[in-house]
């Protein structure tokens, strides 16, 4: 073929070329070792010497044109391939359903939240036996056998001296017998009282807090509880102390929080008072310290016991304590994150 | 305790509204459970005076009245023919509400205008205890002194509030109007008046009437007695019965009413004996004889024991001390001499006797809370004052006084304790004024505070008690929170065990399991449903006073609660259950318990709509998040699991739990119709195997080679046995099952196990010959032990 024939033949073929394999074949046909253009170039030796440079230049120019053409065609075809792939691989991304992570029980959520707060303040988290002796549950806490405070709690007994603990405070003396101040302890756990209705369960959970050191005051107790309340129920939450009585603390207080439902204005949840009772607390009674061999002149301490279900009921708006123990999966799943 | 506001006002000048009063009371430690306005249900009823009565023109039974309601004359039609012109009666006007729920509107009765209705006592919610003659039928005719036009509630005593006050166990002195009045006075910064206890004594000496012996002084700390002669038993005046009515008592007769009045006002339970019934003028306070019988005022017979305290004469018991008087010595309408008893009986005895006999009274309820000897004399004197005031008789001369009399107590403490406990400083003058409000005579000398505590305060013994008195009056609202700036820094955190528990919960939640919490006790019936064997109740730790049998035994397995929960969920249409519990089982070292039992922490996991392999994978991930120890899964003979689908987890040779499919018989017991997988893990055993030390091992430099094999073997050969033959070879990195094939051409009860084995030498690139050598060893062993042969490709 002549140089012009090659050019027009190449132009016709490359225009038709539809994929990279054909293009590669085309490249070989024209530019390969025995390709048309190579053959044409080899024929240069048959030309007179003076024509050779011009011929050579012409062929090389065509080669350059063809190479450029092939390169751009390659790009064009690759792009088409990619575009097609992208088109073909398209999926429907719109669906929103997914398997849900399992949920921690709301009691655990509150326990974890409070324990985490306490740990950040330097408290150790400890737990103790649920089947407890009368000594640790009552006597060592300044509640002897004939004490009126025993009437406050309906106790489940196993034997005359062994019972289901009625309060996590039972851990106070166990800890203070074994360790010396400074003590910052928090004890979550199950407690038991013979009571069963919409707001009382025979089994419920408490978190006991105990601090014993030099210079621990009622103001520290208030500060600690304010810190917990604001983290648990929001920064607007205020804490109110009301005088109360527990045999193992003196002074003793009931602790109310501003109602998280109405913000303290008064609503059905807080019986129009604006306050919700959450826990009992106080300064550790010197009698209890002395029962554990701790010098009550040098050391003071505070203790508090938070009702976990009560906190969860307030925080999550759960109306009936029995829901916690029914474990309907539709209830449980709501607490998944 | 129910407290009428009007009764407090007898002792304290209350000059704030009831809401403010309640807030102040809460502020010093008296919880207000409820506030009721007595007149809440009676509105727009006034005192009117009937000016004129005419026969109704159209109805024989009706009368047409013109009444004055205070400057206005209105027409009222009534059917009560007892009313007379000039009578003052209650009239319910247009829009009025009455205690029985009636709502009154203006209207015409048989053509005559009537702007309201005359009311009887019942419609106002009162009776003769509240107002004179209020037990008569028909319209209530009011006293001459009634003010025309006034709100009827003011006239009949309904304009009053009842505060339901919750008193803490240490303040037994506040279970009385007087005690609460003292607190109210302190809260308002006012004076509390003392009750009038004056009376004149007659000529007959008490000691001539009666001898008293207390034979059980250990349970009768104080016993005081004085008599009344020339008794006139009659109805009490309305001012007294209306007060009793407001606290829920009916008027009976003047003497009994006086004892009830003193019980509520002073807090001292009293008893009045008919002197004529006391044999031989001798009263003995003694323990009952075992088997002794008594018939108290309720008319039933009770059998007593030596733990009970009785008041007796020479012949017989005449009263169950502190609980109820005997039917044989009560006040009768013809009684003419009375002995008043005022005593302190031990609270625990009263409590035990009351509980054992199922017999309670207002007195015993009060004794159970604790009575101090302080009120013995005060109560008795107050009763005698009322006897005189009501003109019931003549008080005898002198008082029989046996036992101790409460005295004031001096408590001295270091003033610096105030700041030490409270974190605030209270100025001296404020300390003195607060103590003054509480009737505590205080004196400050340098750092020494000396306090004389009144005898009725038996809760104050040491510094912290007095500090509490200061702060509750000073006001807790006046302290600012601090963050333990002055105590030492401590290092907090969770125990290793709790961290493991958190890790497990995290993995389980990631595997889509939801956490449950159960009661750790249940009943025999539930345990039996969750077992294929019968239940031996004696193995369980038992609550001796359970709410019911179904909550009486401490669990020894987590399965019963979990299965019950699964069944409940399924019955409510919840499918795809994925549940777990971190619970405890309670294992006694001996029964009955002498020592505390072992409380073993366990994990239970339950799933429906999931195959065994998937469940196994979940459970092993749970185990693996704690331990990388050597794992072996054996067949389990756990009786709650399907015998063919039951596995035991051995970790480093230790049994850490089991899992599998719930036994079909147990599933049927719970009406569970779907496949239900269950696992129970012993957390103490698992945590003992926890990974402790960990060192990095270098990443392999040389490539691995993997080979696939297919073995033909009997159906009952477990895949892991064959895999183990490879795993135990030195160059094998891993061996895993990737397919099980069963088909007719393999033969009956045969299966084909397809496995991949990965070989690696950490020191060189493996040659085929190295692998062949290893493999032939394994293949030989597999053939010999399990009769499993390589399948032809």
Quick overview:
The complex is a heterodimer of chains A (337) and B (793). Chain A is an alpha+beta fold. Helices cover 41% and strands 19% of the residues of chain A.
Description:
By secondary structure, chain A is α+β, with helices and mostly antiparallel strands. Chain A has 12 helices and 9 strands. Chain A has helices at 3-16, 20-31, 36-42, 52-88, 106-120, 134-137, 170-178, 218-233, 286-291, 308-316, 323-326, 329-333, and strands at 124-125, 131-133, 162-164, 183-192, 203-213, 239-246, 249-258, 275-284, 300-307. In chain A, the strands form 2 sheets. Chain A has a 7-stranded mixed sheet, sandwiched between helices. In chain A, strands 2-3 form a two-stranded antiparallel ribbon. Chain A is rod-shaped. Chain B is α+β, with helices and mostly antiparallel strands and 793 residues long. Chain B has 6 domains: 2-38 and 161-188, Phenylalanyl-tRNA Synthetase, Chain B, domain 1; 43-156, Nucleic acid-binding proteins (OB fold (Dihydrolipoamide Acetyltransferase, E2P), Beta Barrel); 201-403, 3-Layer(bba) Sandwich (Phenylalanyl-tRNA Synthetase, Chain B, domain 3); 410-477, Phenylalanyl-tRNA Synthetase, Chain B, domain 1 (2-Layer Sandwich), CATH 3.30.56; 496-688, Bira Bifunctional Protein, Domain 2 (BirA Bifunctional Protein, domain 2, 2-Layer Sandwich); 705-790, 2-Layer Sandwich (Alpha-Beta Plaits). Chain B contains 22 helices and 40 strands. In chain B, the strands form 10 sheets. A 7-stranded mixed sheet of chain B has the order 28-31-32-36-35-34-33, sandwiched between helices. In chain B, strands 11, 13, 14, 21, 22 and 23 form a 6-stranded mixed sheet that branches. Chain B has a 5-stranded antiparallel sheet with strand order 5-4-3-6-9. In chain B, helix 7 (238-246) packs across helix 8 (254-265), helix 8 (254-265) packs across helix 11 (374-390) and helix 21 (719-727) packs antiparallel against helix 22 (768-786). Chain B starts with a strand and ends with a strand. The interface between A and B is large, with 89 and 91 residues.
């Amino acid at each position: 073929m002549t140089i012009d024939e090659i050019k027009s033949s190449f132009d016709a073929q490359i225009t038709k070329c539809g994929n990279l394999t054909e293009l590669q074949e085309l490249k070989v046909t024209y530019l390969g070792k025995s390709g048309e253009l190579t053959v044409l170039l080899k024929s240069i030796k048959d030309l007179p010497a003076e024509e050779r440079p011009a011929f050579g230049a012409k062929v090389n120019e065509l080669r350059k044109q063809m190479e450029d053409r092939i390169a751009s065609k390659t790009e064009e075809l690759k792009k088409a391939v990619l575009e097609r792939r992208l088109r073909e691989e398209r999926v429907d991304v719109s669906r929103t359903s997914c398997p849900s992570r399992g949920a921690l029980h709301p009691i655990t959520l509150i326990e974890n939240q409070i324990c985490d707060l306490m740990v950040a303040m330097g408290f150790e988290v400890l737990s103790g036996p649920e089947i407890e002796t009368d000594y640790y549950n009552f006597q060592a806490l300044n509640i002897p056998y004939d004490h009126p405070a025993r009437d406050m709690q309906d106790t489940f007994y196993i034997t005359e001296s062994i019972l289901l603990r009625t309060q996590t405070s039972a851990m106070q003396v166990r800890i203070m017998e074994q360790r010396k101040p400074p003590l910052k302890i928090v004890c979550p756990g199950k407690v038991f009282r013979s009571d069963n209705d919409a707001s009382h369960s025979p089994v419920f959970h408490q978190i006991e807090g105990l601090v014993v050191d030099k210079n621990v005051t009622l103001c520290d107790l208030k500060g600690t509880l304010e810190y917990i309340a604001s983290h648990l129920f929001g920064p607007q939450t205020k804490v109110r102390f009301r005088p109360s009585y527990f045999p193992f603390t003196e002074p003793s207080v009931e602790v109310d929080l501003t109602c998280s439902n109405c913000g303290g204005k008064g609503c059905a949840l807080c019986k129009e008072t604006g306050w919700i009772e959450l826990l009992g607390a106080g300064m550790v009674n010197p009698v209890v310290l002395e029962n554990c061999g701790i010098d009550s002149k040098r050391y003071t301490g505070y203790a508090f016991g938070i009702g976990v279900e009560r906190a969860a009921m307030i925080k999550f708006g759960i109306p009936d304590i029995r829901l916690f123990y029914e474990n309907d999966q539709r209830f449980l799943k709501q607490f998944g994150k | 305790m129910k407290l009428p506001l009007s009764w407090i006002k007898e002792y304290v000048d209350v000059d704030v509204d009831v809401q403010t009063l309640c807030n102040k009371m809460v502020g010093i430690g008296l919880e207000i459970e409820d506030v009721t306005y007595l007149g809440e249900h009676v509105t727009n009823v006034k005192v009117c005076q009937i000016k004129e009565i005419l026969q109704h023109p159209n109805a024989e039974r009706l009368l047409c009245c013109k009444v004055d309601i205070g400057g206005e004359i209105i027409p009222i039609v009534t059917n009560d023919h007892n009313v007379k012109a000039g009578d003052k009666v209650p009239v319910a006007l247009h829009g009025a509400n009455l205690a029985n729920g009636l709502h009154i509107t203006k209207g015409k009765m048989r053509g005559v205008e009537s702007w309201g209705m005359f009311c009887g006592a019942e419609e106002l919610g009162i009776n003769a205890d509240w107002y004179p003659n209020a037990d008569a039928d028909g319209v209530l005719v009011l006293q001459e002194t009634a003010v025309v036009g006034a709100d009827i509630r003011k006239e009949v005593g309904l304009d009053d509030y009842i505060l339901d006050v919750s008193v803490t166990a240490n303040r037994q002195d506040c279970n009385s109007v007087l005690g609460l009045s003292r607190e109210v006075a302190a809260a308002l910064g006012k004076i509390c008046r003392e009750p009038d206890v004056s009376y004149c004594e007659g000529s007959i000496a008490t000691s001539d009437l009666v001898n008293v012996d207390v034979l059980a002084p250990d349970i009768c700390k104080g016993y005081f007695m004085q008599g009344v002669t020339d008794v006139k038993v009659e109805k009490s005046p309305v001012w007294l019965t209306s007060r009793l009515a407001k606290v829920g008592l009916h008027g009976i007769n003047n003497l009994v009413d006086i004892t009830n009045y003193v019980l509520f006002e002073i807090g001292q339970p009293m008893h009045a004996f008919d002197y004529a019934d006391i044999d031989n003028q001798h009263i003995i306070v003694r323990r009952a004889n075992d088997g002794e019988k008594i018939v108290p005022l309720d008319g039933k017979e009770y059998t007593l024991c030596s733990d009970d305290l009785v008041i007796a004469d020479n012949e017989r018991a005449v009263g169950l001390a502190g609980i109820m008087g005997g039917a044989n010595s009560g006040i009768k309408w013809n009684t003419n001499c009375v002995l008043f008893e005022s005593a302190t009986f031990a609270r625990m005895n009263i409590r035990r006797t009351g509980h054992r006999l199922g017999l309670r009274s207002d007195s015993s309820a009060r004794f159970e809370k604790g009575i101090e000897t302080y009120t013995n004399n005060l109560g008795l004197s107050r009763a005698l004052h009322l006897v005189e005031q009501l003109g019931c008789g003549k008080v005898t001369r002198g008082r029989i006084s046996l036992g101790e009399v409460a005295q004031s107590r001096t408590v001295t403490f270091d003033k610096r304790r105030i700041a030490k406990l409270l974190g605030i400083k209270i100025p001296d003058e404020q300390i003195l004024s607060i103590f003054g409000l509480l009737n505590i005579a205080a004196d400050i000398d340098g750092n020494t505070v000396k306090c004389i505590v009144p005898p009725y305060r038996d809760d104050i013994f040491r510094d912290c008690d007095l500090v509490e008195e200061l702060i509750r009056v000073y006001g807790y609202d006046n302290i600012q929170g601090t963050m333990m700036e002055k105590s030492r820094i401590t290092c907090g955190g969770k125990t290793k065990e709790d961290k493991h528990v958190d890790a497990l919960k995290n993995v389980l939640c990631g595997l889509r399991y939801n956490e449950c919490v159960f009661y750790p006790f249940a009943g025999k019936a539930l345990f039996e449903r969750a077992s294929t064997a019968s239940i031996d109740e004696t193995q369980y730790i038992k609550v001796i006073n359970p709410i019911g049998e179904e909550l009486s035994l401490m669990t020894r397995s987590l399965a019963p609660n979990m299965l019950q929960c699964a069944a409940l969920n399924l019955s409510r249409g919840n499918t795809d259950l994925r549940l777990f519990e971190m619970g405890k089982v309670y294992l006694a070292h001996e029964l009955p318990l002498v020592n505390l039992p072992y409380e073993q922490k366990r994990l239970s996991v339950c799933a429906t709509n999931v195959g065994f392999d998937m469940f196994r994978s979940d459970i092993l991930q749970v185990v693996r998040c704690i331990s990388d120890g050597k794992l072996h899964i054996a067949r389990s003979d756990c009786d709650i699991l399907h015998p063919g689908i039951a596995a035991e987890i051995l970790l480093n040779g230790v049994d850490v739990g089991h899992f599998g499919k719930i036994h079909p018989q147990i599933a049927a017991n719970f009406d569970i119709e779907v496949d239900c997988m269950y696992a129970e893990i012993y957390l103490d055993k698992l945590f003992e195997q926890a990974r402790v030390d960990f060192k990095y091992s270098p990443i392999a430099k040389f490539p691995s080679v993997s080979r696939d094999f297919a073995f033909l073997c009997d159906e009952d050969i477990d895949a892991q046995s064959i895999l183990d033959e490879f795993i135990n070879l030195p160059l094998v990195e891993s061996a895993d099952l990737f397919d099980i094939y069963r088909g007719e051409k393999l033969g009956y009860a045969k299966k084909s196990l397809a496995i991949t084995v990965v070989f690696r030498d950490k020191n060189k690139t493996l040659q085929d010959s190295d692998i062949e050598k290893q493999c032939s060893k394994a293949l030989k062993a597999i053939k010999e032990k399990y009769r499993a042969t390589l399948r032809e490709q």
